[in-house]
Design a protein that fits this description.
This protein has helices at 2-8, 12-17, 19-22, 30-46, 53-68, 94-104, 124-134, 145-157, 178-185, 200-206, 233-242, 267-272, 298-305, 310-313, 317-328, 333-339, 341-346, 350-366, 405-413, 441-454, and strands at residues 76-77, 81-83, 138-142, 161-165, 171-172, 176-177, 188-192, 211-217, 247-252, 277-281, 292-296, 371-381, 390-397, 420-421, 423-425, 428-432. By secondary structure, the protein is an alpha/beta fold. The strands form four sheets. A seven-stranded mixed β-sheet has the order 3-11-10-9-8-4-7, sandwiched between helices. The protein has a five-stranded mixed β-sheet with strand order 2-12-13-16-15. The protein has a two-stranded parallel sheet with strand order 1-14.
């Protein structure tokens, strides 16, 4: 039976000439089309049942389209998690993106000094704005904050001890652990204090002739409460200065300056209080793209910049341009709240969020989709502000739990042209409005309606 089916399979040439396939020759060269067709036909030969020519053409067409469609695509985030690591962390404002795009299309002066026509330094483009905003002496950019921490440890403390409080041996997302980064860099971890209490005397006692750095990590994705004591930045800076040891502060989440919205250590404060080097991410509270930003003492930054591994860790023109536009927003509190989407979402009032939920609910009701508005709590996410619960509202679809409709619709919404990521919780499907825009509502409601009707 299988041999009979194989005989009926059309040739590669026959499929190539089919009008539904031939039109793709304008998008994919002939040799690649042949490879795709052969792959489909090989799978059909292994099948236990026969396929019509129409079925085969559909399979080939689907395989070609899958090759042409981008794997990375925009999604609608209805989870209420602002810095959603799985959804690209910080969402970037369209104006910020367009300004950066204009500076990077075609050629640009990435490493070309326009003043004298000589070779330039790519990091110079960010020095002016970042030094002005953070009050640091100098700046260096690498491809993420883990790389920033690793580079500092490798450069200043290889085969030397690095003093860290036990309460700050952090893990971010399961892949960034301070002990592992220490080991990979060649530094020797020197734990001091206890889980909940560390004192200045603990640092003093740990310092010896083989001490390379004093390292502090901000507890950005967890909190320790109750009987706790930790040494503040000012006191650590004094200890480090007394013993002529560099003091590094990994502030991770990267709040640039104090704000009424967020109560946590800022990059500005860390520099002012005496940290020699401060590291933080570009795609967290800064509201930009992935990058590791190192700021601090000019002598240390210049030494780091000469490390041969900077060639491995350096960033490109798009990263530099986007970061520059993100830092420019800090020149105006008004622009920061309007164009930094992290601050925009964090500043939304409960009344605003309730009004948004009513609009979304009404649009769904108009399409005969039963729903209710429920209270919810959004989160900052992305390894930031672990204790922050943001009062919000979500629209919950009225679906039968018995038939597991919520799970089925949740999955189908993930494979639409513009996927919608909601909240699947206890057999319910919810859409939190904290991380939505009003302009999303028509697409959300139409997509949900089409998905339910197909169920």
């Amino acid at each position: 039976m299988q041999s009979e089916n194989i005989k009926k399979i059309p040739s590669v040439v026959t499929i190539l000439k089919h009008p539904e396939i031939y039109k793709f020759q304008n998008h994919i060269q002939h040799s690649y089309l042949v490879i795709i067709i052969r792959d489909v036909l090989n799978k059909i030969r292994l099948a236990e049942h026969s396929f019509s020519l129409e079925d085969i053409i559909k399979k080939v067409k689907h395989a070609i389209q899958n090759m042409l469609i981008s794997s990375l695509k925009p999604v609608i985030n209805a989870t209420g998690i602002i810095l959603h690591t799985n959804l690209g962390r910080a969402p970037i404002n369209e104006t910020v993106y367009n300004n950066a795009k204009d500076n990077t299309l075609g050629y640009c002066n990435l490493e070309f000094d326009l003043n004298n026509g000589s070779r330039g330094d790519r990091h110079k483009h960010l020095q002016k704005i970042i030094k002005f905003i953070t009050h640091a002496e100098d700046v260096l950019i690498v491809n993420n904050n883990a790389a920033a921490v690793w580079l500092i440890l490798e450069h200043f403390a290889k085969n030397k001890e690095v003093i860290v409080s036990r309460s700050e041996l952090i893990e971010i997302g399961g892949s960034f652990r301070i002990p592992d980064i220490m080991s990979a860099s060649g530094a020797v971890l020197k734990e001091i204090g206890t889980t909940n209490c560390t004192y200045p005397a603990d640092y003093q006692k740990a310092i010896n002739e083989n001490t390379g750095l004093i390292f502090k990590a901000h507890q950005s994705n967890y909190s320790i409460k109750g009987h706790t004591t930790q040494v503040d930045v000012t006191d650590l800076a004094k200890i480090a200065k007394k013993h002529n040891i560099p003091f590094i502060y990994d502030i991770g989440s990267g709040l640039i300056k104090k704000t009424a919205l967020i109560n946590e250590p800022s990059v500005q404060d860390a520099i002012q209080e005496g940290a020699d080097l401060v590291t933080f991410s570009g795609d967290k509270l800064l509201g930009g793209n992935q990058a590791g930003i190192i700021i601090g003492k000019s002598s240390l930054i210049k030494s780091l910049a000469k490390n041969p591994l900077m060639r491995v860790l350096r960033v490109d023109k798009i990263t530099i341009s986007l970061l520059e536009e993100c830092f420019k927003l800090y020149l105006s509190d008004k622009k920061l709240l309007e164009q930094n989407l992290i601050f925009k979402y964090l500043s939304r009032s409960e009344d605003t969020l309730f009004s948004m939920s009513k609009q979304l609910s009404l649009k769904l009701t108009e399409l005969n989709i039963h729903n209710t508005i429920v209270k919810s709590f959004g989160r900052s996410g992305g390894g930031t502000l672990p204790d922050l619960e943001i009062p919000s509202y979500a629209v919950c679809l009225s679906l039968s739990k018995k038939d597991r409709l919520a799970e089925m619709i949740y999955q189908r919404l993930l494979i639409t042209d513009k996927p919608i990521v909601g909240i699947l919780k206890e057999g319910m499907l919810l859409f939190d409005v904290l991380t939505l825009e009003n302009s999303d509502f028509d697409l959300i409601t139409q997509t949900i309606s089409s998905t339910i009707n197909e169920s």
